[in-house]
Write a structure and sequence with these properties.
Elements lengths: L2 E6 L1 H8 L4 E3 L3 E4 L8 E5 L6 E7 L5 E8 L7 H14 L10 E6 L8 E6 L2 E6 L8 H12 L3 E6 L1 H5 L9 E4 L5 E6 L2 E6 L13 H10 L4 E5 L5 H8 L4 E6 L2 H14 L5 E5 L2 H10 L4 E6 L11 H15 L3 E11 L6 H14 L4 E7 L16 E7 L2
Helix pairs in contact: 2-3, 5-6, 6-7, 9-10
């Protein structure tokens, strides 16, 4: 690992000083030498040629530099990273006072460690990399996690791009300690859930919706509940815990619904819980044909827009879902509609849902708009992806 001297365009300087952590390839004006992945990129300002910021260099990405620090010159060493990770841990202190043993410790750019995700399940750390800049620092990070959290095991997860590149390290590698079973059981606000830390989505579970799941628990007493795109049944389990009289988990994946059934069984000996293996639209139509209505519907679809070109299609899909769901909502029923796509603007999403409901001529009120839980702090727009809106229908 070596140091690079960098100068960037004035518009990029302004962006850095305003706190944005990305420097794109076309923003670099001067560079003293070719760099390798993980090299320190020291950025000097145009006017005075003085230290402005330091980041990590990635020649494999259009995001050429990910900023670690702005202001006075600092030494990028173990103490530097330990301060950052300790600070992130301290921000989660209130969450960790609850009966919760799975949480996001580091949320990349929003915890000033861009491209690095660290989720913790019990005493197991799952480290997910979105850029190769972190490979040279893995040993230091592991040392810090042992010191701060006393972790016993660490698993490496890689994004698709890194998985495609040749590397000595592979997705799912155990890089510290031992893992007796890739499926583990953790607590979320007192409820038990299973997660596969090697093969599961993201790092094993969708931790970002935790607070919305807790809210659903508080809204479910005596209600008939439909959980669409239920995956592992997080919302369904919370609805049952909240006293729902009927819960249906709907998902296209039979495997996911088996996981939902196992999560229900982990917590309850008897329930009025059933599963429906179906495409969302086909399942909604089937329930309509059966004359079903629900007091509470949760609709949390996967990302419909993974690129700019998919935004219009995604917005159409959200609208179509709401159009189809409205006949299923009973009088005084509640709809939780969510989106996990960072490419869908938050306000555009809310406006679309509200306008779609208005066109249906049903009286409604907005109970709440919600985003990520506290361990997914909001910072840059690109990582502020989760949005949810609660609507109550009075007729």
């Amino acid at each position: 690992m070596s140091k690079l001297a960098i100068k960037v365009k004035k518009v990029a300087e302004k962006s850095i000083l305003q706190g944005h952590p990305w420097v794109y390839e076309n923003s670099i004006e001067k560079q003293n030498k070719a760099g390798e992945t993980g090299d320190l990129a020291v950025i000097f300002d145009q006017r005075r040629n003085k230290f402005m910021a330091v980041g990590l260099y990635d020649p494999q990405s259009v995001i050429r530099i990910r900023i670690l620090h702005v202001g006075n010159s600092v030494e990028i060493n173990k103490d530097f990273f330990k301060f950052k990770i300790q600070n992130a841990f301290d921000k989660r202190e209130n969450l960790l006072q609850t009966e919760t043993t799975a949480y996001r410790l580091v949320y990349g750019e929003n915890d000033a460690l861009p491209g690095l995700i660290i989720d913790v399940y019990n005493q197991i750390a799952v480290i997910k990399l979105y850029t190769g800049i972190w490979f040279p620092f893995l040993e230091i990070i592991l040392e810090i996690l042992v010191e701060i959290l006393k972790i016993e095991t660490a698993i490496l997860r890689l994004n698709r791009l890194l998985q495609m590149q040749n590397s000595l390290l592979k997705d799912g590698d155990i890089i510290f300690g031992k893992l007796e079973n890739e499926e583990i059981t953790f607590l979320e606000h007192g409820l038990k859930f299973n997660a596969n830390l090697i093969k599961g989505h993201k790092t094993g579970y969708f931790l970002d919706h935790r607070n919305n799941r807790l809210k659903i628990r508080g809204l479910s007493e005596g209600k008939r509940v439909l959980d669409i795109f239920s995956y592992a049944g997080g919302f369904s389990v919370n609805a049952i815990a909240g006293g729902a009289k009927e819960v249906i988990s709907l998902d296209l994946s039979a495997q996911a619904l088996e996981l939902a059934k196992s999560n229900v069984a982990l917590n309850f000996s008897t329930t009025n819980h059933s599963i429906l293996v179906s495409d969302a639209f086909d399942g909604i139509k089937l329930l309509q044909d059966q004359g079903k209505t629900f007091d509470l519907i949760i609709c949390d679809p996967p990302s419909f827009a993974k690129s700019e070109s998919q935004i219009d299609k995604a917005l159409y899909s959200y609208k179509k879902l709401v159009d189809n769901l409205l006949p299923l909502i009973a009088s005084n029923g509640i709809l939780l509609m969510a989106s996990c796509s960072s490419r869908i603007d938050k306000e555009i999403f809310y406006e679309l849902i509200i306008e779609t409901v208005k066109n249906f001529k049903r009286k409604f009120s907005i109970l709440e708009k919600a985003t990520h839980d506290v361990d997914h702090p909001e910072g840059i727009k690109e990582l502020s992806y989760l949005k949810a809106i609660y609507l109550k229908f009075v007729n």
